[in-house]
Design brief:
By secondary structure, this protein is of the alpha+beta class. It contains 16 helices and 18 strands. It is globular, with a radius of gyration of 26 Å.
């Protein structure tokens, strides 16, 4: 099998770009999704294993031969990659001769440091574990709270899987009190010498359980009716808890940073098999050592921190916080929900979260999803394309009086498509020159979003030369006349 076969098998349709090295071909990159930066030379002599051919992406930096292709794209271990390429391993072709399957575009100046968190005290874990069991049973018997979670997209099996719970309070109050020393916590006294009790407010209990089954944290989401003042906490972390990072489906090649834990569970539920999710708990939260290790292995990190309303200075906390992720991880990029503030809002607005995540991942993920659906006999939706999106069929409508003449540039093609599809727009998060962030919308127009995404990727350099002009003409709401 040569590299052309590998590309064609994944529906990437390589096109001949010239005679260099016996024939040069280009196609979308199977890893980063770049439309015109991936090159391969299937006949280029390669003495290393006796199999001709090499490839290189000028955007994400992957390169190698057929063996490395099976490692980079198919995720094989080296022995399996050698076998698939028909190469017998020997001393000169050990895996250490290859670079990492997920190379970076350039060496990073510095790596973020992730904290290693200690386990909570044994007595705390025992008491907290009993509280989780009690709260979980209370939730399963509470139709109102189960309906609330279902309204946010969480299935009953997900509630059970992550042992979510409900604390109803006790003795007619919306709170429970326990002795701190009974939980292994240090005693704290009031000014009059009385010991302070451990405060456990009414609310949804969100436990963090480690991969080896250790209870690390209890966080309680309080109901709106209990939040009377601006200083009242919406989320309460039970003292003694570890602040380790919640990471679900950590082995996934795509990891999605999200703020709230319930939204993290929702994305992990909807995107099982294609992506994992990380909860930062706030827009400023950072990954711990284990999460950092998983992120450094990931091939895509779509940052889905909240799309908050702008502050008085015009900035959005989620978009501002996303810069840290983009600066520290080469494969990170901003990918907020197309509707609402967070994945829970998007679900309620009718957004298919799996399709939203797939639309933001490199083509190799969509190809694998297509193969999975076909193997299960399911219908393949249009969002799962084969590298080059197909232009959607326009909705029948009266012909305009004057058809705009497309400008012969990539930006012109984007403008022409938006002019002909008034329902479509670009959702902008910032129009600061050189730092524009935007996404195609609305999510309900799945075929059009797929095609608009391809146009947007091709025109990204031209858009960012003058994002204000694009936002003025095609942002929502459209400020200029078309």
């Amino acid at each position: 099998m040569n590299l052309l076969d590998c590309l064609n098998d994944r529906g990437l349709t390589p096109l001949n770009a010239g005679p260099k090295h016996g024939g040069e071909y280009h196609s979308p990159c199977p890893i980063c999704g770049g439309q015109d930066r991936f090159r391969c030379w299937p006949e280029q002599p390669n003495e290393k294993h006796g199999i001709p051919g090499s490839y290189n992406c000028r955007r994400c930096g992957i390169s190698g031969d057929v063996v490395q292709w099976f490692v980079d794209v198919d995720g094989m271990e080296y022995p399996a990659a050698f076998a698939s390429a028909g190469v017998k391993g020997n001393g000169s072709s050990l895996p250490r001769k290859y670079r990492s399957p997920a190379p970076r575009k350039q060496p990073q100046k510095s790596q973020p440091n992730g904290r290693v968190w200690d386990l909570p005290p044994e007595l705390w874990m025992e008491k907290a574990g009993k509280l989780v069991e009690y709260a979980h049973q209370q939730l399963l018997k509470n139709p109102e709270q189960m309906a609330y979670l279902a309204g946010r997209g969480l299935k009953s099996e997900t509630v059970i899987k992550y042992q979510l719970g409900w604390l109803p309070g006790e003795n007619g109050k919306n709170v429970m009190y326990r002795a701190r020393v009974g939980w292994g916590l240090p005693e704290i006294k009031w000014p009059d010498g009385r010991p302070k009790a451990l405060w456990l407010p009414r609310g949804i209990v969100i436990p963090l359980i480690s991969e080896d089954g250790k209870l690390m944290r209890l966080r309680i989401r309080r109901p709106k009716c209990d939040i009377k003042k601006k200083t009242d906490l919406k989320y309460y972390v039970v003292p003694g808890s570890s602040m380790a990072t919640m990471i679900l489906n950590p082995e996934s090649e795509a990891l999605v940073p999200i703020e709230a834990e319930l939204d993290t569970m929702l994305v992990a539920q909807e995107c099982e098999g294609i992506a994992g999710a990380i909860s930062t708990m706030s827009d400023t939260g950072k990954p711990d050592a284990f999460a950092l290790e998983c992120l450094q292995r990931a091939k895509a990190i779509p940052v889905a921190l909240d799309f908050d309303p702008p502050k008085e200075d015009g900035t959005r906390p989620g978009a501002k916080a996303a810069k840290w992720w983009i600066e520290n991880f080469d494969r990170a990029y901003r990918w907020p929900v197309p509707e609402g503030k967070d994945p829970g809002d998007a679900f309620q607005a009718g957004v298919n979260l799996r399709e939203w995540i797939l639309a933001g991942l490199p083509p190799v993920f969509r190809i694998r999803e297509k193969e999975r659906l076909k193997s299960q006999g399911q219908q393949v939706v249009e969002i799962i394309n084969e590298g080059t999106p197909t232009k959607p069929k326009p909705t029948p409508k009266p012909a305009p009086e004057k058809q705009p003449k497309p400008i012969p540039t990539k930006l012109g093609s984007l403008f022409a498509f938006l002019d002909g599809n008034p329902k479509m727009y670009l959702k902008f998060y910032s129009t600061e020159k050189g730092n524009a962030a935007y996404a195609p919308a609305p999510a309900t127009e799945v075929e059009s979003v797929t095609y608009l995404t391809s146009l947007m990727i091709e025109a990204v350099d031209e858009i960012e030369k003058n994002p204000m002009e694009v936002a003025y003409r095609y942002g929502k709401p459209r400020m200029g006349k078309n």
